[in-house]
Write a structure and sequence with these properties.
Layout (H helix, E strand, L loop, with lengths): L12 H15 L5 H15 L3 E10 L2 E9 L5 E3 L3 H9 L3 E3 L17 E9 L2 E10 L7 H11 L6
Antiparallel strand pairs: 1-2, 1-6, 2-3, 4-5, 5-6
The site of methionine sulfoxide (SME) has 13 residues, from helix 3 and strand 6.
Length: 159
């Protein structure tokens, strides 16, 4: 399989339709979680060139453990309710942060990061991990991204 570069439109319905198609294309039929999330992090990073970190944290007992990602090395464990990731897990909903310095308890991994989005992923109603994405731009992620990413992530590991 060779990767064919796609040109994404501005973020909106068409963008998320294409992102969903790309995620399906590069993860469909694969049941191994690491393989699926590794390609998913790459596909999402291609779609968000202003994101400096795209990756997954996976629920491991009472904390989140670093999973496949694109970007600089990051913290490997995040406690329940800690940071943006642990907070999204605890609240059971996505969190969009316009300026990370203003989010109390934010865990800094890359000092160039200004904004962040964390989207929980569920199976049978239970959160098994989160997508975390950082950007060097302030307020880079929107409520539309929250909804778009939620529906795209639902495609992953679908039976
Ligand atoms: N900022 C995250 C930590 C992970 S890094 O951004 C990759 C947080 O506050 O949970």
């Amino acid at each position: 399989m060779s990767y064919i570069e796609v040109r994404y439109p501005e973020r909106g319905a068409e963008f998320y339709k294409m992102l969903g198609e790309q995620l399906e294309l590069y993860t469909r039929g694969e049941r191994d979680l690491t393989a699926v999330l590794a390609n998913a992090s790459s596909v999402i990073a291609q779609a968000f060139p202003k994101a400096n970190w795209v990756g997954f944290y996976l629920v491991d007992k009472n904390e989140l453990r670093l999973g496949p990602f694109q970007g600089r090395p990051a913290v490997t464990r995040i406690g329940y309710g800690l940071g943006v990731c642990g907070s999204a897990w605890k609240r059971g909903e996505a969190i969009v942060v316009d300026e990370v310095e203003c989010f109390e308890g934010h865990i800094a991994c890359d000092c160039n990061t200004h904004s962040e989005i964390v989207v929980p992923m569920r199976r049978n109603g239970e959160i098994w991990g989160v997508l975390d994405m950082d950007s060097v731009l302030p307020a880079h992620f929107t409520e539309e991204d929250r909804a778009g990413l939620e529906s795209c992530l639902d495609l992953l590991l679908r039976p």
